[in-house]
Amino acid sequence: MLKVMEKEMFKGINKNPFFNHIGFEIVSGHEDELSLKLEVKKELLNTNNSLHGGVHASMLDMVQTIHLRKIYHTSVSAVNLDVHYFAPTNTGDLFARAKVLQQGYKLATIESEILDENHQLIAKGTGVYKILRQSE
User: Fold this and answer.
1) Is the separation of the CB atoms in 76 and 65 below 8 Å?
2) Domain range for residue 94?
3) CB 33 within 8 A of CB 27
4) Are the beta carbons of 94 and 83 closer than 8 angstroms?
5) Which residue has the higher pLDDT, 14 or 66?
6) Using CA atoms, how far apart are residues 94 and 122, in angstroms rounded to an integer?
7) pTM (2 d.p.)
8) What is the CATH number of the domain that holds 112?
9) Model pLDDT for residues 35-52, shown as the tens digit of each residue
């Protein structure tokens, strides 16, 4: 459960229509860590009855974006997102977490991974983001 101070840090995310539509939920938001949760629903499955790859990519991008916004206290924009898919899934909860690899003034590189309830690696992604500073 998030503390009151941590909830304040993430209050703007609830205004993101895509975040709410897909069903993402912030479950941890400490100083150096951020975790998202997603309940796999049938509406998110593809014709092979597994989670659509775009949902994986969106979850990786979302956890990376929120984590960087928390660090930089400003908006960021994806320059590149490289996704690797390891295992299909069609039920249960997924959890994504992010870790900064390189933190620069104009660009940041970050990686994230999605695990299922059994800690099996489902997907992993690396992103490069432009830091959108107000003064520039």
Assistant:
1) yes
2) 4-132
3) no
4) no
5) 66
6) 9
7) 0.88
8) 3.10.129.10
9) 999 999 999 999 999 999
